[in-house]
């Protein structure tokens, strides 16, 4: 059935928490009342990206963008916009700080500066409809590979694209596939989608799965064809309820249409996907700990080598990629490696999806070309810092990443550029912090996270994270000495190399990064016994002693003043 208009209601998790399901129901309830139910279709979509202003609604074909829509606003949109053709101006997105209304979706600065490859369908299709995915070109890449390309050609195309893993390490995806394709083929091989996200502020993979689950399944099928695997697993944490529901529906739809299962598209190639739920441990995002958990064991890392492409899941050759990496693959196969290399930088082609959070006007999900500067992200897309505050730092790559101070605002956002400054793209979390925050307090929260999430299997991580957090607590209480800072550096050097897995190896990184760029603030706590931001309680013994001296001095001064006053009387 053809419709005159489509009303797209964002039902990503953030908008859902702001009652977007109720907004959607109200549209469906009111359309028949105005005789529009045969002319206007209401579509539940994944995340649009502008989470701060949800629930968001887009009316097509013109692309009118409404933000902050309440249930009580729906009747006005139906009666004025959909029935009479008059845009409801008061509900249009307002560009801060001048509050200038913007009517159509592509003119909003937040979207105008983005390049959407991975998020190409998020917000535009009903993620629970395989027909809408196919209508946007979905599964064409799989059809092309199965009918016109050999597995080796698929591997070579991905290698030529220069796609690097979007999970943090940035390992070349095509090379990983080549290793798996050449590995022992006497038994089964596997494709694993790592959908476990455990770091604060990291939720891009969840929103990709909620908004476009078929893109990930198609990427997995292409990986299976390329390396000779016939079984795939999506490992996802159990609390990602909406992602799991949509993945289950997508798998069922793909099987029904012959796009998963036996003899896909009549090609003779078999590939199927199952979902495995994790219990929510950060360490299970590490590939070998993930395999342990997926096999039914305790989620603890294994010693490497052997690497997963030789001996991964169930001891068999395994390709493991994260959600964002796999969602890139269908586009690369469909449009070609040469096209993909027109985006991003020479060493890091393509785009990167970030979750932009913290002290930023436009928080949400964004996708930008690799190599864009941090300044462009913050001020052109993010809308700047709220309330006119000054930018202090950006934490890139999640809790295991590093920090970028104000003097590096023009650093290109790609693997190599960030690495030269001690930071990383990592999980894609991009936390913006303004000048009201204390760097020691922020770093202390990082150290607590790693202490809490260490699985405890290896001593360097188990004991190292504990000692790092104890030092940070002493610093924040005004009880630390310069020796503590030196001990923290020495401990960090040991932890970079000694632990079994990246959790322990990266635990000191955010602390060392903050110490590198904000040493004066650390010294203010350690030597001056003061917190420049006025955040840390400084209630330790040293602080109390200092306070006691101050109180005595103040008391003496008061007594002296009192005695002087008495004499005057």
Show the helix and strand layout.
Blueprint: E1 5-10, H1 13-17, H2 20-33, E2 40-45, E3 57-60, E4 64-66, H3 74-84, E5 93-95, E6 100-102, H4 109-112, H5 130-135, H6 140-148, H7 151-161, H8 173-182, E7 190-195, H9 204-211, H10 213-227, E8 231-237, H11 241-256, E9 272-278, H12 287-294, E10 318-322, H13 323-335, H14 337-340, E11 351-358, E12 364-369, H15 374-381, E13 391-396, E14 402-405, H16 415-420, E15 429-434, H17 439-453, H18 459-477, H19 482-497, H20 502-506, H21 509-517, H22 519-526, H23 541-568
Describe the structure.
- A hairpin with a 4-residue loop joins strand 5 and strand 6 (100-102).
- The protein has helices at 13-17, 20-33, 74-84, 109-112, 130-135, 140-148, 151-161, 173-182, 204-211, 213-227, 241-256, 287-294, 323-335, 337-340, 374-381, 415-420, 439-453, 459-477, 482-497, 502-506, 509-517, 519-526, 541-568, and strands at residues 5-10, 40-45, 57-60, 64-66, 93-95, 100-102, 190-195, 231-237, 272-278, 318-322, 351-358, 364-369, 391-396, 402-405, 429-434.
- Helices cover 44% and strands 14% of the residues.
- With 569 residues, the protein is of the alpha/beta class.
- The model is unreliable at 545-569 (pLDDT under 50).
- The protein is built from 23 helices and 15 strands.
Question: What is this entry, summarized?
Answer:
The protein has 569 residues and is of the alpha/beta class. The protein has helices at 13-17, 20-33, 74-84, 109-112, 130-135, 140-148, 151-161, 173-182, 204-211, 213-227, 241-256, 287-294, 323-335, 337-340, 374-381, 415-420, 439-453, 459-477, 482-497, 502-506, 509-517, 519-526, 541-568, and strands at 5-10, 40-45, 57-60, 64-66, 93-95, 100-102, 190-195, 231-237, 272-278, 318-322, 351-358, 364-369, 391-396, 402-405, 429-434.
């Amino acid at each position: 059935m053809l419709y005159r208009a489509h009303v797209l209601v964002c039902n990503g998790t953030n908008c859902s928490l702001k009652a977007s399901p109720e907004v959607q129901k109200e549209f469906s309830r009111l359309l028949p009342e105005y005789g529009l139910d045969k002319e206007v279709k209401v579509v539940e979509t994944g995340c649009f990206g502008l989470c701060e202003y949800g629930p968001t609604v887009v009316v097509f074909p013109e692309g009118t963008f409404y933000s902050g829509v309440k249930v009580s606003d729906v009747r006005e949109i139906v009666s004025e916009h959909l029935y009479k053709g008059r845009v409801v101006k008061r509900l249009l997105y307002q560009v801060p700080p001048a509050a200038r209304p913007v009517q159509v979706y592509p003119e909003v600065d937040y979207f105008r500066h983005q390049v959407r490859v991975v998020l190409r369908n998020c917000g535009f299709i009903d993620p629970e409809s395989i027909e809408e995915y196919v209508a946007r070109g979905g599964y064409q890449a799989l059809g092309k590979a199965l009918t016109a390309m050999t597995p080796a050609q698929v591997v070579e195309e991905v290698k030529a694209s220069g796609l690097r893993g979007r999970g943090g390490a940035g390992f070349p995806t095509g090379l990983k596939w080549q290793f798996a394709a050449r590995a022992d083929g006497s038994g089964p091989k596997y494709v694993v989608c790592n959908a476990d996200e455990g770091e604060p502020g990291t939720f891009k993979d969840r929103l990709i799965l909620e908004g476009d689950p078929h893109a990930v399944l198609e990427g997995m099928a292409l990986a299976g064809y390329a390396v000779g695997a016939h079984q795939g697993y999506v490992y996802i944490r159990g609390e990602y309820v909406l992602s799991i529901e949509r993945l289950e529906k997508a798998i069922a739809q793909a099987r029904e249409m012959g796009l998963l299962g036996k003899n896909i598209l009549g090609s003779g190639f078999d590939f199927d996907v199952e979902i495995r739920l994790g219990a929510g441990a950060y360490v299970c995002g590490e590939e070998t700990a993930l395999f342990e958990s997926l096999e039914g064991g305790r989620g603890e890392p294994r010693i490497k080598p052997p690497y997963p492409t030789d001996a991964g899941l169930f001891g068999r050759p395994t390709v493991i990629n994260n959600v964002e990496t796999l969602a890139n693959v269908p586009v690369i196969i469909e449009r070609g490696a040469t096209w993909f290399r027109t985006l991003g930088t020479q060493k890091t082609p393509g785009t990167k999806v970030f979750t932009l959070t913290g002290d930023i006007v436009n928080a949400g999900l964004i996708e930008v070309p690799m190599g864009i500067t941090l300044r462009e992200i913050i001020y052109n897309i993010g809308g700047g810092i709220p309330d006119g505050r000054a930018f202090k730092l950006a934490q890139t790559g999640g809790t295991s990443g590093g920090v970028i101070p104000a003097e590096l605002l023009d650093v290109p956002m790609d693997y190599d550029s960030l690495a030269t400054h001690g930071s990383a793209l990592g999980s894609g979390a991009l936390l913006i912090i303004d000048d009201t925050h204390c760097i020691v307090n922020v770093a202390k929260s990082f150290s607590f996270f790693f202490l809490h999430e260490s699985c405890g299997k290896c001593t360097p991580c188990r004991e190292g994270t504990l000692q790092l957090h104890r030092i940070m607590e002493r610093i924040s209480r005004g009880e630390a000495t310069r020796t503590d800072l030196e001990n923290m550096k020495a401990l960090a050097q040991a932890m970079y190399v000694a632990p079994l897995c990246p959790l322990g190896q990266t635990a000191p990184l955010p602390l060392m990064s903050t110490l590198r760029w904000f040493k004066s603030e650390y010294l203010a706590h350690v030597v001056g016994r003061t917190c420049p931001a006025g955040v840390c309680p400084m209630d330790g013994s040293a602080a109390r002693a200092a306070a006691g001296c101050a109180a005595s001095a103040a008391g003496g001064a008061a007594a002296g003043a009192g005695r002087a006053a008495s004499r005057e009387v």
